[in-house]
Amino acid sequence: MIYYVLILILQILFNIFKVLEIKYTYENKLVPLLFNSVWINVISLVSVFFSIDRLFDDDYLIIPFYIIGSVIGKWLAMTKFNS
């Protein structure tokens, strides 16, 4: 169960940072964009590692958590992170 929660949280964070990356690029904010890029890469590595590890163990239930985390993350970023 810990893997499902971890993937859900990581996907939410990844998608929040991904939306912020687009925003920072559009606003030409270089320093926040660079720090954001570091977080995107770290989170995506960890998320993909655990997701693929679970898939190799024939745990296909990880897929809905991955997708749901993605949707929630984008929704949060678009509705709650206005500045």
Report the principal-axis shape: elongated
Poorly predicted tracts of residues: none
Radius of gyration: 14 Å
Mean pLDDT: 94
Q: Indicate how many domains the architecture comprises.
A: 1
Tally of individual helices: 3
Helix fraction bin: over 70%
Helix/strand class: mainly alpha
Instruction: Characterize the biggest β-sheet.
Output: none
Provide an overview of this structure:
By secondary structure, the chain is mainly α. It has one domain. Helices cover 86% and strands 0% of the residues. The longest helix is centred in the middle third of the chain and has 27 residues. The chain is elongated. It starts with a helix and ends with a helix.
Could you give the topology of this structure?
Layout (H helix, E strand, L loop, with lengths): L1 H25 L3 H27 L5 H19 L3
Helix pairs in contact: 1-2, 1-3
In short:
The protein is mainly α and 83 residues long. It is 86% helix and 0% strand.
Relevant terms:
83 residues; mainly alpha; elongated; 3 helices
